[in-house]
Design a protein that fits this description.
Elements: H1 3-9, H2 16-22, H3 32-48, H4 52-55, E1 70-73, H5 84-94, E2 106-108, E3 111-114, H6 118-132, E4 156-160, H7 172-190, E5 194-201, H8 206-218, H9 221-226, H10 228-255, H11 261-266, H12 268-280, H13 284-307, E6 314-317, H14 323-335, E7 340-342, E8 345-349, H15 350-353, H16 356-362, E9 364-368, H17 376-391, E10 395-399, H18 405-417, H19 421-425, E11 427-430, E12 435-436, E13 439-440, E14 443-444, H20 448-464, H21 467-472, H22 476-493, E15 501-502, H23 505-508, H24 516-532, H25 537-541, H26 551-561, H27 563-573, H28 576-591, H29 604-628
Helix pairs in contact: 1-6, 6-26, 6-29, 8-10, 8-12, 14-17, 17-18, 20-22, 24-29, 26-28, 26-29, 27-28, 28-29
The structure holds arginine (ARG).
Arginine binds at residues 160, 163, 165, 200, 202, 380, 398, 400.
Length: 636
C-alpha cells in the first residue's frame, strides 16, 4: 500500500479507486488535500443531507494556519430556510468527535473552520514528499488532452518570452519578460504540458542594414568574436550618431535653400535602405553576413540565459518571417476585407470593422508602408499562423510588457477577423508593468549581463561585511552570482505582474525581509542541518513520525501539504507571486520553529523524526524555488 492508500484506509469505506470515480479532478496520490476535501464533503453531506457535489466546490482554503486548513461558508451552499449561523452550529454539533482526519470544526458566525488531525497528516505527508522528491507538487494530469484518459497525450504550449533586439539595449521590459516567461514555462512543464520555449528576436529592419554598413567600415573581427553583443551595440551607437549628424546637416542645408539631392543619395540613411533592400531581396552575400551576426549574438545570449537556468527551444525572430508568406497573408487580408489600401499604404481600420467601443479602442493601424516595407504587426500575424501550422499548439502565451497591450489585442483581433477564431482563442498575452529607476553603477543598463554582474558585485560586498561567515564560503564568486540573480528575480516576482516597481539594489540584496537572499538562506540552513546530523536516508525513512506532536511541527507539515494546491492555483493566476508568497509563509513557519524543534542535541528517535520533517520542508522549498527559476543554494 502507498502512504496515501493507507491514509484513505483510515477512513471507513474510502478507497482511492472509488474516490477517483466520483471526483475525476481529485488526485490524492499527488495531492493528499484532495482526499481531505473529499472526506470532509462526505461527512458534511451525511450530516446535512446536502449532496457532496454541492459541498465539494465550496470547501475553501483559509487565510492562514490559525484559521484552519479548510473553511466552509455555509451561505455558499445557497440553502433555503434556516439561518446559516444556526445551520453551522447544528452541523458542528453533529460532527463526529472521532473523525479519522479532522478535529471538531471551529465556528465563527456562519464560517466553519476545519483543522486536520496531526498524526494522519504528518505520517502521510512526510513520506509522500520524500518519495516524490523533485516531483512533489507536480500534477501531470493538468496537461493531458483528456483529463480522464492518461493515454490521451500531452497538450502543447508555446511560451514566447525575453525577445530582445539585436544590437540594441536589453532593457527592463526584456528582463521582466525573461523572468516571468521562464517561470510560466516551468509552471506548465510541471503541470504536464509539452512546452516550447521560444525567443522572438528583434533582428530585422533597416537598422540592421545600417549595422552591416558600420561593420564594413569599423568592424573588428576579434571584438565581434569575443563579445558580439557588445561590439555590435557599439558599432550601432556610433553609426547612429553619425547618421543623426548627417541628417541635421541635410536639414540645415535644406533650410538655406540648397539642393540636397546629391547629399541625400550618398547618405548613410540611403545606403542603409539599399543594403536592407538587398537583405529582403535575399542577396546571399549580405544574408550570410547578417546570419553571422545573428548566430554569434544568439550564442552569447545563450550563455547568459543559462545563468538563469533558461534554455530556449527555438530562436525565432522577425528575420525568420518570409516575405513570401507575408505576401500571401497580405492577399488574404485584402480578400477578406480585413485590410484596405490608402494612398499606397495598407492599413486595418478596426473602427469600421468592429462596431462600438472595441473598434474605437483598437483604432486604425498600418500594416505596410507606402514604400512597401512590412511592419512589426504584419510579421506577427504571419508568424502566429506559421507557429500554429508548425506546432499545432493548444495554447500560446506572449510574455510582453503592457506597453504592447494594444499591439497584441490588434494581433489577436486580426487573426479572428481572418476567420481563425479557434486559433485566436488559444492565444494569450501575459503583460507586466514597468521597472522604475533601473540603472547600474556604471550608468544606464545596457545588457542582461551588466545587470546580473552588478547585482552579484553588490551581493559580494554584502557578504564580505560578515568576515567570519565569509571566510567559510567555499566559492564566494559563484555564491554571490547566484545570490545576485536571486535578488533580482525575487524582487521582480514579489508583486503582481501588472504593478510597476522600483529597482532597489540595497533592498533586494538584503538578508532581511522577503528577499532572494533570505529565501536562499532559509534553504541553505535546512541543508546545513542535514549535513550536521549523521543520519542515513534509511534512518529518515524509518523515523517514528508520531513523535511530531508540537504545534510547530504540525504547522510545518500543514504548510507542506498545501504545495500541490498552490501550484494548481498558480496555473490559474499565472502570477509568480502566488508561489513566492507561499514560499515566504513557509519559511517563516520553519524559521520560527528552530528554537522549539531542535535536531542537533535531541535524543535519537526525536532527532530522526524532526530531521525527516525538515528534510521534507527542504524538498518542498527547493521545488518551489526551481519553478520560479532560482537555483537553490546548499551553502552560503
Ligand atoms: N522585440 C520586441 C521588443 O523588444 C518584443 C517582441 C514581442 N513579441 C512579439 N511577438 N511581438 O519590443
Amino acid at each position: 500500500l502507498t502512504v496515501i492508500e493507507k491514509l484513505a484506509q483510515r477512513v471507513d469505506g474510502l478507497s482511492i479507486a472509488s474516490l477517483a470515480r466520483t471526483y475525476p479532478t481529485a488526485h490524492p496520490e499527488i495531492n493528499p488535500l484532495d482526499l481531505y476535501r473529499v472526506h470532509l464533503s462526505d461527512v458534511l453531506s451525511k450530516i446535512s443531507g446536502v449532496d457532496t457535489s454541492i459541498i465539494y466546490p465550496v470547501v475553501m482554503w483559509t487565510q492562514g494556519l490559525d484559521k484552519g486548513d479548510f473553511v466552509v461558508a455555509v451561505p455558499a451552499l445557497r440553502l433555503k430556510g434556516k439561518k446559516p449561523d444556526l445551520l453551522a452550529q447544528e452541523w458542528a454539533g453533529k460532527f463526529p468527535e472521532n473523525d479519522p482526519l479532522f478535529k471538531k470544526p471551529v465556528l465563527s458566525g456562519h464560517f466553519m473552520s476545519f483543522f486536520m488531525k496531526a498524526e494522519p497528516l504528518v505520517e502521510s505527508i512526510i513520506p509522500l514528499v520524500k518519495q516524490a522528491g523533485k516531483n512533489y507538487g507536480k500534477n501531470h494530469f493538468n496537461g493531458l488532452r483528456d483529463a480522464k484518459d492518461p493515454g490521451s497525450g500531452q497538450k502543447r504550449i508555446i511560451v514566447e518570452f525575453s525577445s530582445p533586439n539585436v544590437a540594441k539595449p536589453f532593457h527592463a521590459g526584456h528582463l521582466r519578460s525573461t523572468i516571468i516567461g521562464s517561470f510560466i514555462a516551468n509552471l506548465y512543464e510541471a503541470s504536464g504540458w509539452h512546452v516550447v520555449r521560444m525567443n522572438y528576436l528583434g533582428d530585422w529592419g533597416k537598422q540592421y542594414g545600417l549595422l552591416a554598413l558600420a561593420y564594413q567600415r569599423n568592424g573588428d573581427e576579434e571584438a565581434l568574436k569575443k563579445n558580439p553583443i557588445d561590439h555590435l551595440f557599439k558599432l550601432y551607437v556610433q553609426i547612429n550618431s553619425e547618421m543623426t549628424a548627417e541628417k541635421d546637416l541635410i536639414e540645415a542645408q535644406k533650410k538655406e535653400g540648397k539642393n540636397v539631392e546629391a547629399l541625400e543619395a550618398a547618405s548613410l540613411d540611403e545606403q542603409a535602405r539599399q543594403y536592407f533592400k538587398r537583405m529582403t531581396d535575399r542577396d546571399e552575400v549580405v544574408l550570410a553576413q547578417w546570419q553571422r551576426f545573428r548566430d554569434l549574438s544568439i550564442a552569447r545570449y545563450k550563455e547568459t540565459y543559462s545563468r538563469l537556468n533558461i534554455q530556449f527551444d527555438e530562436f525565432s525572430g522577425e528575420s525568420q518571417v518570409a516575405e513570401k508568406s507575408m505576401a500571401k497573408v497580405a492577399d488574404e487580408m485584402k480578400e477578406k476585407n480585413v485590410s484596405r489600401e490608402d494612398h499606397g499604404a495598407v492599413l486595418v481600420d478596426f473602427t469600421q470593422l468592429l462596431p462600438g467601443k472595441e473598434g474605437k479602442r483598437l483604432g486604425t493601424t498600418v500594416l505596410r508602408k507606402r514604400d512597401g516595407t512590412a511592419l512589426y504587426l504584419t510579421r506577427d500575424v504571419c508568424e502566429l499562423l506559421g507557429r500554429h501550422k508548425k506546432y499545432d499548439f493548444d495554447h500560446m502565451i506572449y510574455v510582453v510588457a503592457s506597453q504592447q497591450d494594444l499591439h497584441l489585442k490588434q494581433l489577436f483581433q486580426i487573426i479572428e477577423l481572418l476567420g481563425y477564431k479557434d486559433v485566436a482563442k488559444k492565444c494569450q498575452h501575459i503583460n507586466f508593468g514597468l521597472v522604475l529607476g533601473m540603472s547600474t553603477r556604471k550608468g544606464t543598463v545596457k545588457f542582461l549581463d551588466d545587470i546580473l554582474k552588478d547585482c552579484a558585485d553588490h551581493m559580494h560586498e554584502t557578504m564580505r561585511a560578515n568576515k567570519e561567515k565569509y571566510a567559510q564560503i567555499e566559492d564566494p564568486e559563484g555564491t554571490a552570482d547566484i545570490l545576485g540573480i536571486s535578488s533580482v528575480m525575487v524582487q521582480d516576482m514579489s508583486g503582481k505582474r501588472i504593478n510597476n516597481y522600483t529597482f532597489n539594489m540595497d533592498a533586494m540584496t538584503s538578508f532581511e525581509g522577503d528577499t532572494g537572499p533570505y529565501l536562499q538562506y532559509a534553504h541553505a540552513r535546512l541543508c546545513s542541518i542535514r549535513r550536521r546530523v549523521s543520519l542515513s536516508e534509511e534512518d529518515l525513512d524509518s523515523a517514528n513520525l508520531s513523535l511530531l506532536k508540537e504545534d510547530h511541527a504540525v504547522n510545518i507539515a500543514r504548510m507542506l501539504s498545501q504545495w500541490p494546491d498552490v501550484l494548481q492555483n498558480t496555473l490559474k493566476t499565472l502570477e509568480p507571486a502566488t508561489v513566492l508568497t507561499y514560499l515566504f509563509k513557509m519559511t517563516h513557519v520553519i524559521s520560527s520553529s528552530y528554537d522549539h524543534l531542535k535536531v542537533v542535541g535531541s535524543e535519537p528517535e526525536l532527532m530522526k523524526a524532526r530531521m525527516a520533517l525538515y528534510d521534507a520542508a527542504r524538498t518542498t522549498l527547493a521545488n518551489g524555488m526551481r519553478i520560479l527559476g532560482l537555483t537553490p543554494l546548499e551553502r552560503m
